[in-house]
Specification:
Layout lengths: L1 H18 L2 E12 L23 E10 L6 E7 L2 E11 L3 E2 L7 E3 L5 E10 L8 H9 L2 E7 L2 E7 L3 E2 L3 E2 L2
Parallel strand pairs: 1-10, 1-11
Antiparallel strand pairs: 1-2, 2-7, 3-4, 3-8, 4-7, 5-6, 8-9
């Protein structure tokens, strides 16, 4: 009797957890700067002025690790205060490395399915929010919205790991 009760309690608890396709989301960003690397920004060596720094382009590398081979429908992504639509999703083989310079391992060797999420343009319309999502926005740097079995889910990511910047010459 106790074994049957224990089995039903554990099944009721773990069944909803296994129903979710995502096991984790990892986010990375890299800044791309135009021009040469300045060794010093000392006004005395630069004719008394500090040259203005050009604005850097930021690229995000977002990877979702799936529990199964089926991939949910990724709908939109929230990155630091702005919603974006999803430009493309692409299955990746593990391990995943960053691009040069200084390639480093972003995702280790896994047997799970890895999907790269590529953000697109700003989301064209006002996204609906509800109190739990607004609270999630206050505490997260990135939120992935996906659709699974007819329902929408939001997966928060607390931090975005900053990769080494790239300077063009």
């Amino acid at each position: 009797m106790k074994k049957g009760l224990l089995f039903s309690v554990l099944t009721a608890f773990f069944l909803p957890l296994s129903a979710q396709p995502l096991s984790r989301v990892a986010a990375f960003s890299r800044e791309y700067h135009q021009g040469m690397v300045r060794e010093r920004n000392i006004p005395a060596e630069n004719s008394g002025t500090i040259p203005p720094v050009s604005r850097a382009a930021v690229t995000y590398f977002i990877y979702a690790v799936m529990n199964e081979s089926l991939v949910p429908g990724f709908r939109k992504i929230w990155i630091r205060g702005q919603w974006y639509d999803i430009l493309q999703t692409k299955k990746e083989k593990s391990p995943v490395y960053s691009s040069p310079p200084n390639p480093m391992q972003l995702i280790p060797e896994l047997k799970q399915t890895i999907v790269r999420i590529i953000p697109g343009n700003d989301f064209p319309r006002q996204s609906s929010t509800f109190p739990a999502l607004r609270q999630m926005m206050k505490q997260s740097a990135l939120i992935v919205c996906y659709q699974w079995k007819g329902k929408y889910y939001y997966w928060p990511v607390q931090t975005i790991t900053l990769l080494d910047p790239v300077f063009s010459e």
